[in-house]
Amino acid sequence: MADILNVVVCGTRFGEHYLAALNCAEHLWSARPAHLPRYRLAGIVARGSARSLALAEKLAVPLYTDVAHLPDDIDIACVVVRSAIVGGDGSALARSLLTKGIHVLQEHPVHPTDILRLRALAAQHGKCYHVNTFYPHLPAGQRFIDYARQSARQRPPAFVEITTSLQLLYSSLDIVCRALGKATPFACSQPLALHAELAEWLADYTSPWPFRAVQGLIGGVPFSLNLQTWLDPDDPDHHSLVMHRIAIGGPEGNVLLANSYGPVVWSHPIYAPDYERDDAQSSYLLAPDHFAESRFNRQPTATIFGKQHGPSLTEAATHDFSLAIHAALDELMQEDAPVHQEHWWQAHGDAWLGIMRAVGPAQLTSRPPPAPPYPDPLAYAKECQT
């Protein structure tokens, strides 16, 4: 494998984050394991919009409007174009690139049947194909997955709790599957029906109902899902009430990904082992030293892993996104990664499609830009420190 691999980015909307990550890659190279390749931005594949032309000029790389025009020294293509299942040309583009003998990293979501076909095509040409769900590779996602995975090795979790939107269900399930190490066995219920009286009241309710409740098993663990099933057809990538909020745990405590970008929080329910005793040693007023000896009473009720707050979008785009994209490229090139196993994306896809079929078509509704939060959370946080 070459020390440095030449990479083209297909698409410049979300693809601009790939461009930024590859253009500023040098600062990441010193921290990279020696067995992993490094990546160089070698061009943009796009239709030739003013945006694409300006980006190519700024980054001093060629703009290709046809895959056929790519030079022979391109090693990897990042396909950051909507796939066929969401009405885009990404899957067809991935097929053309693999046929040309180029490794492909494709942005999610991708239908499991397309993944199966593209993986077979990649194998036929001796190349790698992988789907990037992005969010598991962010620093917060990696912390969450690592803690949950280590915990599961010691003791199987008792529950998974997910709150997300239709747009982010695919990546949410990948985070959960990585944390559990598997997606099967999987089963899910139909969404909880609204009570008749509540449904009647909703006739005068002007906003879409925020979430629908689904329950089932994923990786053999009971899960509860609160899923936002409406989206804005004119702006489908935005207006998620919650992007990723995921908890995994049991009676001993749980780890929570509070937000797509963090923080990651471990917390536990209260357990007082001496609560039912009726002697002097059971009262913390009478025997404070004895009370403090118990680990249930000593450990913090909540602990944050990593930074105390999530990054701003600007901070995330300039730092976390680069880490995530390079981690996804590394995973593409690591043939022994668990997600390259034959069953991984089929099992993930079955879970994703099972939930999508259960909840039915998205409810389409136009939404205004979000209002500023009140009280201002940063100002309120300062007040809490005084």
TrEMBL record:
Annotated Thiazolinyl imine reductase-like C-terminal domain ranges read 156-267
Q: Which Pfam families does the UniProt entry name for this protein?
A: GFO_IDH_MocA, Irp3-like_C
**Gfo/Idh/MocA-like oxidoreductase N-terminal domain location:** 5-132
Name the PANTHER family for this protein.
BILIVERDIN REDUCTASE A (PTHR43377)
Q: What is this protein called?
A: Gfo/Idh/MocA family oxidoreductase
Recorded source organism is: Undibacterium hunanense
